[in-house]
């Protein structure tokens, strides 16, 4: 074989295998059946092996064709990895500000902050990664991002931080749940001993609850469901799957409409600080400092909207 086969021919071969028909493969590739047949014949000549058994009933892969198709899939998969990897590199090189944020912050607060930042800096490009608080801190420590936003209460090794907001976890159940009709709050022992719909370990929500119950000598039992996003937990709670602890930012509209019922908890503080974090060896500057500024202005506005603290 003097030179390697061309990629369109390999793609067509894989389509023939997937569709079990040269005609169907040609149609999906946007070419005529004679043109597809000619391309397959040229590929066979270049490789020096027969790939297809042709008959009036159609074209099927030979044993050699099956092997070549498997190798072709690997080549095409690696090509996709290359293309996707280059796209990530391109986006990162274009992003003037690289940030990461926990799910709650990313879904409910960050869009407004970024909107204000973009109005002030219309040419700014932002690269955002959304993940749990532990992974956000890891990226900031590794200097993969300039700035992170987290909701976890734990210590921040190798990082510095500034509070940019406050949040509270709400215990919510569907109206059909027995707790929805309780007249008294549940206590910490009941909370810890009840399987909850929960976020994964490493999330700020999970860590906040674990530390709060541990302060009372309790430990959470195994979750009823462990889900990767607040939206999924909310949906499960709305469906009546069980009690869930959710950010007030997430659940407030449902509580207001009685789609979910807030269950009071006695003797425990489930409020939490939302923090901007950056590497201990740096200080926020430029667009990163401006983004923190917009978050602080937004926080002050929310405080005025709620009225004076009591």
Structure description:
This protein has helices at residues 7-19, 22-29, 33-47, 63-94, 103-108, 110-120, 133-141, 188-193, 204-214, 230-238, 248-256, 286-306; strands at residues 52-55, 58-61, 97-101, 126-130, 147-150, 159-173, 197-199, 225-227, 244-247, 261-262, 271-279. 29% of the residues are buried. The protein has three domains: 7-92, Arc Repressor Mutant, subunit A (Orthogonal Bundle); 97-165 and 274-303, 3-Layer(aba) Sandwich (D-Maltodextrin-Binding Protein, domain 2); 166-271, 3-Layer(aba) Sandwich (D-Maltodextrin-Binding Protein, domain 2). It is elongated. A hairpin with a 2-residue loop joins strand 1 and strand 2. The protein contains twelve helices and eleven strands. Helix 1 (7-19) packs across helix 3 (33-47). Helix content is 48%, strand content 19%. Strands 3, 4, 5, 6, 9, 10 and 11 form a seven-stranded mixed sheet that branches. The chain has a two-stranded antiparallel ribbon with strand order 1-2. With 310 residues, it is an alpha/beta fold. GO terms for molecular function: DNA-binding transcription factor activity; transcription cis-regulatory region binding. InterPro entries: LysR_HTH_N, LysR_subst-bd, WH-like_DNA-bd_sf, WH_DNA-bd_sf. It comes from Pseudonocardia kunmingensis.
């Amino acid at each position: 074989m003097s030179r390697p086969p061309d990629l369109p021919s390999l793609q067509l071969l894989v389509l023939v295998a997937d569709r079990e028909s040269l005609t169907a493969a040609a149609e999906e590739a946007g070419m005529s059946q004679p043109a597809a047949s000619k391309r397959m014949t040229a590929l066979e000549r270049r490789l020096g092996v027969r790939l297809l058994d042709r008959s009036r009933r159609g074209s099927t892969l030979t044993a050699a064709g099956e092997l070549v198709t498997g190798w072709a899939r690997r080549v095409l998969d690696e090509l996709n990895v290359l293309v996707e990897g280059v796209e990530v590199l391109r986006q990162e090189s274009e992003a003037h500000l690289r940030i990461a944020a926990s799910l709650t912050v990313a879904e409910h607060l960050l869009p407004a902050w970024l909107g204000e930042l973009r109005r002030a800096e219309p040419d700014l490009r932002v690269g955002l990664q959304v993940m749990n608080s532990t992974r956000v801190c890891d990226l900031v420590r590794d200097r993969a991002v300039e700035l992170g936003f987290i909701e976890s209460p734990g210590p921040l090794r190798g990082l510095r931080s500034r509070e940019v907001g406050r949040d509270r976890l709400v215990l919510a159940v569907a109206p059909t749940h027995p707790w929805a009709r309780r007249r008294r709050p549940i206590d910490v022992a009941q909370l810890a001993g009840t399987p909850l719909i929960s976020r994964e370990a490493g999330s700020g929500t999970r860590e906040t609850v674990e530390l709060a119950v541990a302060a009372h000598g309790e430990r959470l039992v195994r979750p009823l469901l462990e889900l990767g996003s607040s939206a999924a937990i909310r949906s499960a709670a709305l469906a009546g799957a069980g009690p869930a602890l959710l950010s007030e930012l997430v659940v407030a509209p449902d509580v207001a409409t009685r789609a979910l019922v807030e269950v009071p908890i006695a003797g425990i503080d489930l409020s939490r600080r939302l923090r901007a974090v950056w590497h201990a060896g740096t200080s926020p500057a430029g667009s990163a400092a401006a983004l923190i500024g917009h978050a602080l202005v937004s926080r002050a506005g929310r405080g005025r909207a709620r009225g004076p603290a009591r």
